[in-house]
């Protein structure tokens, strides 16, 4: 239980909520309390706090703790603030002090719950595997710039300078989630690489995105290789389109055909 000693300038800090409660002044039976909170946390007088405002507070609050638990704690705090306000107005100083102690204890419990759930969310994020990509592009600058950009978005990116290097990489390493394959390369181009991939039992189901500055129809042949690509991206590339496509858990739609 948190204990308030009624000493002026005494502070109680709730680190996970970024809230500090401070006794500003103690004079006889009167106690002046200050609450310091982040800008996004609303501090509302009990007599002016409506059910709609409680709903808005819940909507804005980070979903670190369950909605049911959050609502219960908010309701407890709201009732306590109303009771404390009424007790102060009625001159019931000792009773108001007891109520304030209960409120501080409830805030402490909420602070602990937020901290525990924040740690759980952090552990889950750390345990999540980044989506992996293989960028196949013969131009050194294009390849490294695109790979660097995708890494900035949190993707695990490998690179290959042409189709042959890509096939060697895929044979020796764990398969990526996606392959971004340039079509026009001097040594083993995109369509030839795709045909090898689609005929391979291990690599046949890889999601392969074509990257080209030409009309995709130029690369269609008797084997209808064009339809084997999971998506097409035209140069100059729009990074946002690629990021959106590789972030989806479902099969991406054909883009920029």
Describe what this molecule looks like in 3D:
It is found in: Cytoplasm. Pfam families: CsrA, Response_reg. GO terms for molecular function: kinase activity; mRNA 5'-UTR binding. With 257 residues, the protein is α/β, with parallel strands linked by helices. The chain has two domains: 11-127, no CATH class; 132-247, Response regulator (Rossmann fold), CATH 3.40.50.2300. The chain contains seven helices and eight strands. It has helices spanning 51-60, 67-89, 93-127, 140-152, 163-172, 190-199, 239-247, and strands spanning 11-14, 19-27, 30-36, 132-136, 156-160, 178-182, 207-212, 231-234. Helix 2 packs antiparallel against helix 3 and helix 5 (163-172) runs parallel beside helix 6 (190-199).
């Amino acid at each position: 239980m948190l204990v308030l000693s009624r000493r002026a300038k005494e502070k109680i800090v709730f680190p996970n909520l970024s809230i500090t409660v401070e006794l500003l002044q103690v004079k006889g039976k009167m106690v002046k309390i200050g609450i310091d909170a982040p800008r996004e946390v609303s501090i509302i007088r009990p007599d002016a706090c409506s059910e709609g405002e409680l709903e808005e507070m819940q909507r804005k609050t980070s979903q670190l703790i369950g909605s049911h638990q959050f609502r219960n704690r908010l309701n407890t705090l709201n009732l306590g603030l109303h009771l404390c306000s009424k007790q102060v107005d009625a001159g019931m100083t000792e009773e108001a002090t007891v109520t304030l102690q209960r409120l501080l204890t409830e805030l402490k419990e909420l602070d602990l719950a937020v901290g525990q759930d924040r740690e759980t969310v952090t552990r889950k994020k750390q345990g999540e595997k980044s989506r992996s990509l293989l960028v196949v592009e013969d131009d050194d600058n294009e390849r490294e710039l695109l790979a660097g950009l995708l890494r900035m978005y949190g993707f695990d990116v490998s690179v290959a300078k042409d189709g042959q290097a890509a096939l060697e990489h895929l044979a020796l390493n764990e398969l990526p989630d996606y392959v971004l394959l340039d079509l026009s390369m001097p040594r083993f181009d995109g369509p030839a690489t795709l045909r090898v991939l689609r005929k391979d039992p291990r690599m046949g189901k890889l999601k392969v995105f074509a990257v080209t500055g030409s009309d995709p129809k130029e690369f269609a042949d008797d084997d209808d290789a064009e339809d084997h690509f999971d998506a097409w991206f035209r140069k100059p590339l729009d990074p946002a389109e690629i990021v959106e496509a590789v972030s989806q858990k479902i099969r991406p739609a054909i883009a920029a055909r």
